[in-house]
Specification:
Length: about 350
């Protein structure tokens, strides 16, 4: 019997949240509010709590099935899009499993993902290969995904179990040993927890945390997709537009579940993208390299590294200089399993 079976809910807790950077994403209250607004806010919170409970329950069921099949020697096949990116239900299962690995196989007292020992990385790769049919060329992206979830897990631990004491010193006065022991549900080693708390309560980290919060607050166009990646969004939109351009993905990621833009700023950029898409159809638009529709609408050059409007792992070379249909090992694996 897999040792994680009894604690699936704890390992899944916190997976509802999306981490874009290794930071603590927090929302501060906007001050007092009248009774009507408070009631409306409470209703929203209750609805959100129900949504999270549903997602967590669904995740537990999904993870239980993956582990049960792994014990039986049954591996899951992934599906890929034209760029060799994993999509659909199999990808959600892989992400769910990766989240469990991040919480249970990588110690939280390690300060930086680059410092994780190779032996642990090898164990992660070996373990996930017992549950999924994978190609060696996929290792970097999958291990990187575990790293992102590990950072988010540490952010969630900090936000839930440490920050309250920092924000309200009276809590620590009432419970002087409140930070001495790790939360029992996660089965974290006590020595690891103490090192983690020491780091997170240090002035160095508090300054870093403040800087990351300021950067977060300065984001002009945050996406609204939560855990839904650009890759999954592209899979949802496939067939509804003539071309899944990254500008289309970008504007759709700024809409709520009803299909409306969340802010007026998002709406202005979204409508500008739609206008330029029409110009492209009419042959009136000039696009060279990275200076495509999205770059022209946003008015800022593409930053080296990640590609806006695309999921993690997509480089400028992948998006702008490779023909659609690439994907290396992922594409070969897809062909083998179809």
């Amino acid at each position: 019997m897999d040792p994680f079976d009894e604690h699936l809910e704890e390992y899944l807790e916190g997976d509802d949240e999306q981490a874009n950077v290794d930071s603590i994403d927090e929302q501060t209250d906007g001050g007092s509010m009248d009774v009507d607004h408070e009631e409306e806010d409470n209703n929203k919170e209750n609805a959100e709590d129900k949504k999270k409970t549903y997602k967590r329950t669904r995740g537990i069921v999904r993870l239980t099935k993956i582990i049960a099949d792994k014990i039986k020697g049954i591996k899951r096949h992934l599906r890929f899009n034209s760029r060799g990116q994993s999509i659909g239900t199999p990808n959600r299962e892989l992400q769910c499993y990766s989240g469990m690995q991040a919480k249970s196989m990588v110690p939280i007292n390690i300060d930086n993902w680059r410092e994780v020992p190779k032996s642990i990385l090898d164990s992660l790769w070996k373990d996930v290969n017992l549950a999924f049919h994978l190609d060696e060329n996929m290792r970097k992206n999958i291990i990187g995904s575990v790293g992102n979830k590990w950072r988010q897990f540490k952010c969630n631990l900090n936000k839930k179990f440490i920050v309250p004491y920092l924000n309200d010193p009276s809590l620590l006065e009432a419970n002087p040993h409140g930070l001495d022991k790790p939360p029992p549900s996660y089965h974290i080693e006590e020595t690891h927890w103490k090192e983690f708390v020491k780091r997170r309560t240090s002035k160095e980290f508090q300054d870093f945390r403040k800087l990351q919060q300021e950067r977060r607050n300065n984001l002009q166009y945050p996406h609204r997709t939560s855990r839904h990646s650009y890759t999954e969004l592209e899979a949802d939109l496939w067939g509804t537009t003539e071309q899944i351009d990254r500008s289309i993905l970008w504007k759709e990621a700024r809409k709520d579940s009803s299909g409306n833009y969340v802010t007026e700023r998002d709406k202005v950029k979204g409508e500008a993208i739609e206008d330029m898409l029409e110009q492209r159809k009419e042959g009136k638009l000039i696009e060279i390299g990275t200076n495509d529709i999205l770059t022209q609408v946003l008015g800022t050059a593409e930053h080296p590294g990640r590609v806006r409007g695309q999921s993690r792992g997509v480089t400028q070379r992948d998006y702008f200089h490779k023909p659609i249909g690439g994907g290396g090992g992922s594409k070969r694996l897809a062909e083998k399993t179809n």
